[in-house]
Input
Amino acid sequence: EPCAPLFFPPLFFPPPPPPFFFLLMKRVPCSLLRLRLISIKPLDRFPTPLLPHRVTGVRGYCSTAEIRQMSGHGREAHEATWKGYVEDCVAMPCSMIFGSKEKLVLDKKKKLCIVGTKESLAEVEKSGIVPKGLLATYSAMVKKITPSSLKCASLSQNIFDGSIEDLVIGCVTQEASRHSSPFRADQVRDFVNKHVPSNATTALVIAAPSADAAFAYISSAPKGHHLGKFKGALDGFEPSLAPIPVTVLTAGVPIDEKHNKRANIIAESIQLTGRLVDSPANFLNTKTYAEITEGISKKFGFGCDVLRGEELQAKGMNVLFTVGRAAEYGSALVVMTHNPEKKDDDAEVVCWAGKGIVYDTGGLNIKSTAGMCGMKHDMGGSAGVLGAFVAACRLGVRTKLHALLALADNAVNENSCRPDDILRCLSGKTIEINNTDAEGRLVLSDAVAYAHKYLKPTCLVDMATLTGAQGVATGKHFAAICANTDDIEARALSAGKQSGDQCFPVVFAPEFLLPEFDSDFADMKNSVANRANGQVSCAGLFIYNCGFGGEFKGDWLHIDMAYPATADNKSTSFGVALLLKLIKAV
Output
């Protein structure tokens, strides 16, 4: 954008400047032009060809590099801060440490928080967790508290004698409708979010009525402990959350060290997922995301391949490549592999595929301001897949497992995918674009096609924050699942209830729903003709049809978790516990 010309009154014509004026202007530093240049935005997204290269007097231009240097938005400045962010994610810090009751007592915390059902809270009295001087107070609180089906009931008591100053108990209801999780682990997450502070003076006790409930509670507690704000130096989340000790009791007995170790693995993966989902796109882009997966793979010793740019096109994944073509950092497909030496079934191969749109502007069918805010969360499916995969590998799952992350930034410039473009998917299907904001199904179609063609799975699960229609169909607390067999649907429903990542099925009827994608020029369009005809199912069936043409003979499960992925604009780490339970890693 050229600098504005100097303004002169209409009737005044200034004399030409002396020759030395131009020599002087060539020596004016760009910083003197800062006032004018602050109107150019977003500076770090302008492609170089749109801006000339040098400053040439008052009427001249600044190069893209100079503009970025003055604005502080340069790629170099960002990449310098990314290193710390990537290392932070690879380290997988966790704000909770699961351990024994002895460690809890020796730490002498000032605030003690205990959560569980009314019956399991009563059993805590016999465990020795509560100091003897507080037993009478604790017993009275347990008798007084009444569970609620709407929220986790809680009572707090200030103590002025002894090492513990505050005692807080939360009572989890055992009332659940036939579609809800019987453990109501959502109330554990809410209790932690509200009452468990992020400091070194707090201890948490989780009192579960059974071993099955313990897994749901363990998975839910880290979801409520969010990772705080970004540091002033912008190199990652601030380390203000001091790890707090957590003791888990089942039927009043602390779990052993083996199960504490497994609980720590699950918690670390759940908070890794939350950290990624809550990261803004100027930190979590396709480049840093791929670096994080490579770092974690190297750390724990499982296979990881990353396909980028021309490699995607060479493999035939033109759709994934095109969705991210307008972004500063192009699309990528991350393929991770866990191949255990001992397998329960040599023939079983499981593939998980996750949508990883690091930011979704909507493309040329651009979103509104209100609709675009929060689109950093649009990679929640891939983050859930990554967290579950890392945990499953570390827990020693005895099944050959692949995880695919389809990464892209749905940005806007002259290279953007356009409505009316026709693309060819890896499966050979051609797609007429009639909505660039329906990009998630596009990238997942290539990922699913890659899995079907090269990895030969017997069970294929894709997970995505895919449609607004999911919220209409199954709401904020239940993901929508679409499955091609009764068996995988039943297993997913059971896994949702056992894990607390709740889900509910929508119709699988390709014969009725696929005609919504009919095209005069390609095999199918990418968005439905009628939004009132099972749109959430249509989106899943697009992946089913475009990914492998309906030819897949194994179990296929589609999970649309657009609304359960966040709560109060923060990640819920949805999908990690669900997938772990589905593959029987816990």
